[in-house]
Amino acid sequence: MTMPASQGQKLPLVIVTYREIYAWIARLDKNEEAMFEKYSAVVRLSEADMKAIGVNRGAKVKLSNEVGSVVVRAQLDSKCPKGFAFMPMSRIPNQLTSYQPGKLPNFKWIEVSAEAVLEDVPKPAVP
Amino acid sequence: MPKKDKMQPLQLYRYLPRSNCKKCGVPSCLAFAFGLISREKKPEDCPDMLKDEYRPSLDLLKEYFGEGAQVEKTGLLIDKDKCTGCGDCVIACQKCQGTIMFGTGTILPRDVPDVYKIVDGIVDVKHWESCKRCADRPEMCRVCEERCPTGALELVK
Amino acid sequence: MASTATTVCTACSCLCDDIGLQLEDDIIRRVENACRKGSSSLYGARFEQRRSRHLVEGREVGADEAIDRAAAELSRARRPLIFGLDNSSLEAQGAGIELARRLRCVIDDTSSFCQGNLVGQILSGALPSCTLPEVKTSDLILYWGANPHHSHPRHLSKFTIYAHPDYTELGAVRRVTLAAVEVRESETSSVCHRVFRILPRADRDLISAIGKGMAGQETSADGKRVVDLFRKAKFTVIFAGLGLTYSLDNDYLPFIEMVKQLSSWGRVAVIPMVGHYNMRGFNQSLHKAAGHVNKVSFADGVSSGDQFSFLEQVRNRSFDCLMVIGSDPFASLPKSVSSALEGIPRIVIDPYQSATSEGSTVVIGSAVTGVEAAGTAVRMDGAEVKLLPPLAPSRPGDEEILRRVMEKVSR
Ligand code: SF4
Q1: CATH number at residue A56
Q2: Which residue puts its alpha carbon closest to atom 4 of ligand 1?
Q3: Of B32, B87, C110, C178, which alpha carbon lies 20 to 30 A from C75's?
Q4: What is the ipTM for the molecules in this complex?
Q5: How many structural domains does chain B have?
């Protein structure tokens, strides 16, 4: 497969995390663990942003900021506004979150830059 | 995943060869798309889809439709992975087929057992015979599918 | 021997009390009515590989030794900190608060970065609230920044729209409306009658747009639509989720103003979408005992403030021994914060192994409250629910552990 022309571009994004049912229960049940693995290491992007980064559905995206970086799979969210991305809450986005005194941790406003990569997506650890 | 991500026949059609070659046994590619949704056809049933140029489309469709779906006799397909056991369908169905409305607007309960029950956290069909689709004069009701927030319930007929 | 039982689910703060079980010699064989989350938590109690054992520095020991060591660590510490208790019964929370008082230390729970402030506003009377059964008399149900289908799966079918007597699938007249304010297309917003999609962090703008609309001024299109919806409603229930809390950054003033204004049009009630099943219980217990919902220090009398929030304490490394009860800060906090916890002795009381229990000085395996241990819990609307554990306890309960630790600490 040929890489799209814009591959390698870094795109600033704001990540908003949300709750996934599997993140709560994965450690209680073998089946749920499999579901958690399937759904947790993903980022849901708008079509325009996917194009800008140069990835297709299911391709790997590296998200990084000054606190850390993670590699996850891209998923299309047709209703996602441009410049934002959604990610299920788990230990994965927590590699990117930080905390400013007097405020809440930025679970719902994580500024990152996103780029397409070929690295492997790590197997998410059960919460 | 919210249910709106579900593909409609015309969206599926875009992934097909669109040559209407009829090799799959139906008159057109659009008819094949409907066949895919009702699970009567599999993506591999289209000989052109096996060609290299359609590889990405085939992979996508295979992933989308998954393996070994079992369509029940009312045309119901339950995706157990997606179901969160919220029980919305249980109550919505109860209020739909478990009640009768008279012309005056009065709503009375009907004496039938619930169609659905949540067992081990996932929806299960307990009483087919209560479903309006199984009545003597079947009614193509879609309430449970419409109310399912995750798209785990799909009526393919 | 096969038997049946009814139990209360403790996987979320809906505390569903209609869960049917089929048991066979202390093993659950079938769970009815519970959602996926609930049934996993019921089955999970017998998933031995994931349950925690009593450990002291990684070595497996008996309960007595673990408790002795925990008490010794707490006695030795100059400034211990107690965190958690959201997944414990009211009785255990009482014991935890008493222990904090005795140790003259700081006590906090996840509500300090969750719904604690909102619960506090309700307890202090700044925000009107109602009980979940009362929701059945409302005519507008609004989820604001919440997706109950993943956090409280049976919320809609057991307490709100589908449980509403006026909700029908027949006829064209809608007598109760389900609405949502959401930033993304979620499961809940996909079944709502009305959805107001906003950008992340735009909740404040929407609130001020609503305020303007109510005052009859020019406002945004969405603001106008929400105001129209409120105007028609006689009794509105707003379920406030974490989306709202985080967007307002815990500053509820504009929201309180809005609710006050709305109350002149009809009854308005706010119910927090509390996560852990007894987080509201912790807030209420601490409110009763110390006058504050969280972030309390018993060092000189009773004081409360942001400096006692768990996050601030961790950032400043203000404690020298951490006791975590039924919580997993290592998994739920930013990595950059939780890494500051390395090197501080930890005592973990948890039924399950977790990222926090790994590498802890002392781990005390406890019974799963609600499945193995009895007690009382507080539902998200403030109602007390008595738990009905269906299984025999395989480990001591949180309350028992805390009381035994308390007997042994010398202060
Ligand atoms: S909604 Fe909550 S309390 Fe009810 S069964 Fe599900 S997890 Fe348990």
Answers
A1: 2.40.40.20
A2: C16
A3: C110
A4: 0.88
A5: 2
Of A77, A98, A108, the CB nearest to C336: A98
DSSP string, C215-262: TT----HHHHHHHHHHHH-SEEEEEE-HHHHHHTTT--HHHHHHHHHH
Q: Give me the residues of chain B with pLDDT under 50, please.
A: 1
- Number of domains making up chain A: 1
Are A105 and A90 in contact by the 8 Å Cβ rule? The answer is no
H-helix or E-strand spanning residue C38? helix C36-44
Residue C411 CB burial class (10 angstroms; 0-12, 13-18, ≥19): exposed
Cβ–Cβ under 8 Å, residues C169 and B143: yes
Phi-psi region of B75 (alpha: psi -120 to 50; beta: other; left: phi over 0): left
Q: Which domain holds residue B130?
A: 76-155
Q: Tell me which of B11-15, C9-13, C374-378 is least confident.
A: B11-15
Percent of chain C with pLDDT over 70: 100
Question: Which residues in chain A (62-121) have CB-CB distances under 8 A to chain B?
Answer: 78-79
Kindly report the CATH number assigned to the domain that includes residue B95. 3.30.70
Q: Indicate which residue's Cα is closest to atom 8 of ligand 1.
A: C38
Residue B71 lies in a domain: no
C277-332 tens-digit pLDDT: 999 999 999 999 999 999 999 998 899 999 999 999 998 899 999 999 999 888 88
Check CB contact under 8 Å for A99 and C334.
yes
- Domains of chain C (ranges plus CATH)? 2-39 (no CATH), 51-113+277-408 (3.40.50.740), 116-272 (3.40.228.10)
